[in-house]
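WARN retry 2 of 3 for item q-0093 after timeout on previous attempt; input resubmitted unchanged.
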Amino acid sequence: MVKPVGRIQALGMDLKLAGKEVAVIGAAKGIGKAIADGFRSEGCRVVEFDREAPSGDIERAVGDVTNFEALNAFAKSNPEVEHVVYCVGVGSGKFGFPFWRPEPSDWSRVLEINLIGAANVAHAFAPQLAENGRGSFQFFVSVAGQIGSQTDPPYSAAKAGLINFMQCAAKDLAPYGVRANAISPGMVK
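OK item q-0093 returned
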């Protein structure tokens, strides 16, 4: 069998990811799909969690990140996961300028998915990563969480909260050899 060669390896670099197990939460489309495909090209076993059912031979658990029990079951069924990527995000669907333009009721679902969903993922996987003494969390936030974007205040606030949560997680997990990072991309089509 021919081992797939990833883009990084084609450039003469070896990220030493071959054979690693990676969980990508939010892998059905967009950035999450690209990340899952990238890990696969590096020779990783990728397990996915998303609310959309897979097509083809993709291994994916179908569920909602706001359901901790489902995420916990997913983590327990994948005890060899070393790296966890959270790439889920929703906005309010309303332009936010001024901030009171979105109704208070527009905030709940945005906070629940972008922040509480991420906390659910961290709670589900942190014990096994800490016990294994290695691994990483890569949680995608947004530049909007750094600058307080007026475009969608609920989204900005949720991503800012997630940045802060990753800072706390990084401090708590460091003694166990587990990294926690918040990645802040800009605008993505």
